[in-house]
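Researcher: Here's the sequence for the chain we discussed earlier.
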Amino acid sequence: MHRMSQAKTETGRWDFWIDRGGTFTDVIGRAPDGSLHARKLLSENPEHYEDAALQGIRDLLGVAPDAPLPAGRIGAVKMGTTVATNALLERKGDRTLLLTTRGFRDALAIGYQARPHLFRLKIEKPELLYERVAEVTERVTAEGDVLASLDEAEVRRALEEAYGAGIRSVAISFLHGYRYPAHEERAGEIARELGFTQVSLGHRVSPLIKFVSRGDTTVVDAYLSPLLRRYVDRVAAAIGTEDPQTHLFFMQSSGGLTDAAMFEGKDAILSGPAGGIVGAAATATEAGFKRVIGFDMGGTSTDVSHYNGEYERSFETEVAGVRMRVPMMRIHTVAAGGGSILHHKDGRFQVGPDSAGANPGPAAYRRGGPLTVTDANVMVGKLQPDLFPAVFGSEQSESLDAGTVRKRFAELAAEIGGGKTPEEAAEGFLRVAVENMANAIKKISVERGHDVTAYALSCFGGAGGQHACLVADALGMTTVHIHPFSGLLSAYGMGLARISASRARAVTKPFNEGLRGELDEAIAALGDEVREELEAQGIAKDEIAVTPLLHLRYEGSDTALQISFVSRDVAEAAAAFEKAHRAQFGFSFEGKAIVVEAVEVTAEDRLARKNEGPAKEAASGKAEAADRRPVFIAGEWRDAAIHRRETLKPGQEVDGPALVIEPNQTIVVEPGWQAEVTKADDILLRRVVPLPKRTVIGTDADPVMLEIFNNRFMSIAEQMGAALQNTASSVNIKERLDFSCAVFDAGGGLVSNAPHMPVHLGSMGASVRAVIEQNPEMKPGDVYVLNAPYNGGTHLPDVTVVAPVYDEEGTTRLFYVAARGHHADIGGISPGSMPAHSRNVEEEGVLIDNFRIVAEGRFLENEIRALLTSGKYPARNPDQNIADLRAQVAACHKGAEELRKMVAEFGLDVVTAYMTHVQDNAEENVRRVIDRLKDAQYEQKMDDGSSICVSVSVDREARTARIDFTGTSPELATNLNAPSSVARAAVLYVFRCMVDDDIPLNEGCLKPIEIVIPEGSMLAPRYPAAVVGGNVETSQAVTDALFSAFGAMASAQGTMNNLTFGNERHQYYETIAGGAGAGPDFDGADAVQTHMTNSRLTDPEVLEWRFPVLLEEFSIRKGSGGAGKHRGGDGAIRAIRFREKMSLSILSTHRIVAPSGLAGGKDGALGENEIRRANGETEKLGGSATAELDAGDMVIVRTPGGGGYGKA
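Model: Thanks. This is the structure I predict for it:
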């Protein structure tokens, strides 16, 4: 600021907009005369100041570091902060007690059972936030009947104990408390009486169904609020909020501001990034763009978001391993930032996910850091050290160190070999980083049904400008918008955000005219609450806009969409819901009931925002370059123009290649792009030379393109998975995620699959090859379906849909795509098609062998319905099978579309070549594992006396292994026979785990492995042997046998504990988690899905809401893991009481033979199944059993523990 303007601003008040990020804190001050002034400070700089935000205010007001901030000079401070997020990531919140319903002490530890990484032998679950947990007597049903009233003495005792241990934060979350909160309220009162300073009640934190995610959110609130409160109070004290004209507001995860006094832990997680979206949306809208992709690239990560006229929010988000059930901006974060570390390993270029952080930072930062994305930009000349702030070295006065960067890239290029120059290596890494970011944008746009080519890319964050053109090109976007404050757009967004409040109430009733009264009453009550909250923050009644929203979903589905209910017109809202459902999922259900999950009311201020900023005088024509320098761009050194941002005037244009140097970032204008300065002083980048239709690369394997194709093939399989999950109607596929999608080459070899269910992954290739062999006359638009276990299938409920992918002309067959899903019922002798005692395949359901379901584009509904309802034991709900089959066909259609786009982009020869290269790459990685293996054999005994024998022999010279199952028992009379595709899947999974690196799982993994399975054994049964248990039980035994033979880890629980129950009206299927095996340097995890399955479990509240059952207990079975130097994981205890007559079927093993320890470790505990009748009598059930239960009877399943490793 000039001396002159200082004098006249002494009297007026300044407003401050602040974003305290992980690396930098950005402060924008609006002076009394309306001018804006910016500051960027390091968030942590303890030698120079205590708090970056306050220091920024001091700097702008010209106050000495130790003097107090002057009274009467500060108006509103609006701030976003990562204080809460960082405390969550680093697990530094306050000591917390969780108080919950008896039987559920471990509900949050078990979560939804799934393990986070499919192929890691050492399963690591997120660390729990609470220090202790207490369960108390109280129980309410889903309908609100009180089965046990709250035992206040117990509550008091538990709270007093925790208080005595020094805990002052408590999270109280009871089953169904979101709807019937009386017990939570009372327990909260007792906690406050006893002196707890932070009491978080589940129904206040999140009044929505889902016990596990709401419980997590309640704990987060109790854990983070005290720390947040201390930070907020410190800022408030420093700026002097007792002055009535000084206000302090904080940004919430939902994108609205709230008064400091009302800011809570549960709303603080996305406080910083939310400001960025508000800033991106507001500035892009001002510039005339209605549809925007926000692209915020910082030091450690990149946040991407989608905006087309309204903010997208999600009510279920996972952050740092914690499930959050509160409204949050839908932001997708990918670990690719300026500080992401570059790796060359396994013959591929990889970027991140690890980051160099602020300390030591990139290699160029003069602190001995590793090579990162920033260094790659220095190497190619996109960052010029003398034009970058000189803040490095011990005196904070040196520029970026380009010498070290060149030296390190030269070393890396030499190590890579193949004649790559250092700058080619650097550019290769940048391509991979760009591709990762583009795939992240596809997740929030293309996967959700939006076509982004017509969007503008709103680019911000310190590293965004260097990559914006390339990211846009990767997505086919042709416009990039960069605001003058793009380096600190999150802070600018704080200034533009509105003060808001929201409340929700659960409804869960069919949406019809009869519900109008109840909805109106709820909207009125919630409306009063949000209005009061805004008035308390000094906003006048007539400046408040209130909007009612309904969360609507289809009956039986779990996916609620938020629909405006301003008009209060039921038919209009229902039509809007169906339209939104079609847009996102590609279909809507005709005549299916719509349910109101919840009603939500939001309020925000309507005050006008004035947009200040000095007008610059306009100019036109091409801008004069200040300098020209060589930049390595698009594969060669080119002369790039250098422009300083402050010399560019509105109307001027800059042609690429060029660099525009801003105070807080460098913008790279790539060749074929043009930058223009608009009237509002924004920079618009437009592609003026159309992107060449085809990217020209050779067909030889290149380590950069190998990684890009790997990610691209994987992304196609994931997009197929998203299409299937979104469009399926059955719980198994939609919520338990029991499905898999994959891409295959022309010969039916697996190229890539999304990591869904391991047992499907390796076995789908056999189904695809069966379809290819049996249908030589296949035509474009044909789709086939099969579940035949002796023809590449696994068991009947797993139905596979296979589609050929033809070229655009429809003349040549190029590839195949397939989608497999576990159907809720496919017929057979018991509901759910998982019979315990089937003796042949006919009793297990309808066998579909190579049936054409779509003929040249026409879905043959009548024909497939006839097939499903035929046979001795037909399917019980063919409508649902057909809906799921349609979803599988839609997924295949999506995969085919994306593959054709890829061929258009790279050329068929290149795509085909890389399908082979990615397989060769995986093969080489598996050969490296084989180099470490020794010959071994192992015999795995089964409960029924049969055994699986495996011997491994390694050929060191050829680097191959032979896995021989000779000696395995012959075909069984029971249903534990596993088709040979299951054994193949198990071998593939085991080798993929042994690689212990992030390689794609494909056909190449099996090339160096010869698998010998004796025909007619239990691992290669013949028609019509029963097979339903082979897929779920025997597959687990095969993996355990292999891991034991390799000495890699002890046995896991070795079963899936398949529990099915049902009657005429209800059918339900679940698999129950157990203990994981211990290994040479790790303990086994407790109560988690292991090896061949990773399906989710239905939330307890949803289970009780949908089915007439009571979940009495779901806990960790303490002490059931095998002892040893490293302990096996504990199993689980699950007890379900039935409220009406049901048939039950359980299919489980390790009830007689224990999961074995390894290297001297002890065995895990045996599993146990029992029924406790209403009169108190108990009956033991065998491993495979059926039973009839009456109302009041209970089934109790205790799952096995994992084996221990090594002598204790």
